[in-house]
Amino acid sequence: MEVEQLNDRLWMLDVEQFGVPRYGSVYVLGGRHPALVETGTSVEAPRVLSGLRTVGIRPEEVRWIFVTHVHLDHAGGAGTLLRHMPQAQVVVHPRGAKHLADPSRLLASVKKATGQMADKYGTMEPIPTQRIVPAEDGHLFDLDGARLSAVEAPGHAPHHLCYFEHRKKWLFTGDAAGTWREGMLLPTTPPPNFDLPLWETTLDRLVAMEPAALLYTHFGPNYEGRDALFAYRDVLRSWVGRVEDVWNEVARDDGAAVGRLLADPELRRWPYNDHAREAELEMCVRGVLHYLRRRENE
After folding, report:
1. Mean pLDDT of 49-74
2. How far apart are CA 23 and CA 16, in angstroms?
3. What share of the chain is helix, strand, coil (3-state, %, to 5)?
4. Are 9 and 22 in contact (CB under 8 A)?
5. CA distance 140 to 165
6. Sheet strand arrangement including 132-134
7. ω into 164 cis (within 30 of 0)
8. Domain 3-236 sits in CATH 3.60.15.10
9. Residues 206-223: what's their mean pLDDT?
């Protein structure tokens, strides 16, 4: 497992999500009150514990786990990690708190949405409500020098937060700025809650914060800051337009639209998960189709 030090109190752990190097990041903030940003899936929890020890932090010292949203590749390991972190609390959007306390509906939804990839997402252990901290927009956390603010960031999911570190002006993006793989920005638009107008409003807010770097969960730092956010707006608009064009060409047959896009040679070269490329791409297509039908009925 790769551990990369990004500054004097920040490390990035490559948890080799889904068994793929440089696919999923967990960030470690050091100091008197150590914190994690994201957890990976429950499958990757042992790697997170190992990474903490590598940077000289004992799991029982960790005070905070910040999750951007409750999708299992971002928060699935939280309950498992808490068994080793008796002082830690989990920070999450208020709309996500109930799913951490009782993940049964979330797990059923993940199984339906991810298909053949479901087993790779692991599970989620319920978290006692007293260890969950619902964070509203603007909630400020003082981590012994590092100051982290929760930023409301819907579009990918209605319960999505980003976290802005004021000292360095670094933004932990979750999926709010897309995914960043092999130097390419990719859309991440899963069903059922992808919403283009909401996401564009989120990008406007993030741009206004003038981040110096974007710290992607998938994957790693991007030092283009605002420029990367502008670029992702273009990626989203282009992606939605592409899916809509194909959907109209096949008389709005969802299955036919998915089949045509999965067969597109250009899309097959996008650096998605090599072990489940079609499943991941299909999930993103179906999220746009769900959005288009919802928009049509509004």
Report:
1. 96
2. 6
3. 45, 20, 35
4. no
5. 10
6. 3-7, 10-14, 25-29, 35-37, 64-66, 89-92, 132-134
7. no
8. yes
9. 96
Q: If residue 108 lies in a helix (H) or strand (E), which one and from where to where?
A: helix 104-114
- 291-to-6, 71, 240, 296 alpha-carbon distances in Å: 37, 18, 9, 9
pLDDT above 90 for 275: no
What pLDDT is recorded for position 43?
Answer: 94
Q: How far apart are CA 286 and CA 275, in angstroms?
A: 19
Quote the CA–CA distance of 136 and 93 in Å, as a whole number: 7
For residue 66, the cross-strand partners are: 37, 91
Query: At CA 71, angle to CA 66 and CA 77, rounded to 5?
Result: 60
Q: Is 95 helix (H, G, I), strand (E, B) or coil?
A: helix
d(CA 165, CA 127): 26
Whole-model pTM: value is 0.94
The pLDDT of residue 119 is 76
Give the separation between CA 28 and CA 38, rounded to whole angstroms.
Answer: 9
**pLDDT attached to residue 75:** 96
Q: Which residue do the tokens 């999930």 mark?
A: 283
- How wide is the angle at C-alpha 215 spanned by C-alphas 211 and 22, nearest 5°? 155
Q: Are 137 and 60 in contact (CB under 8 A)?
A: no
The number of residues making up the chain comes to 298
Rounded (10°) angle between helices 104-114 and 277-297: 110
CA distance linking residue 223 with residue 219, whole number of Å: 12
| Alpha helices in 147-276, H assignment, sequence order | 196-208, 226-249, 254-262, 265-268
| Domain ranges within the chain, ordered by starting residue | 3-236, 237-297
